[in-house]
Amino acid sequence: MVKIIKSHRMHLNILNKKYLKKDKQGNVTTEGGFKQIGYYTTLDGAFNALIEKEIKRSDAISLDELKKHVESIKEGIFEGLKSVKV
User: In the predicted model, is pLDDT for residue 32 greater than 90?
Assistant: First the structure.
């Protein structure tokens, strides 16, 4: 899960990625957190970076699979935007 935080004061968009924390022994816990993975001056830049990061993580082996993956990413972005209050 990736979350975008908008900072109005600096006109900065921050991409945060959700992760599960580890205890002192290195075991994954049920407690989660968010890591900052990018800073962008526009939402468009943040969205493009998110799509690019997801493409790089993709295991698609054909252009058709990659196209479907990108469409899925865009749908996820649009779904996430529905809950944003303007």
Answer: no
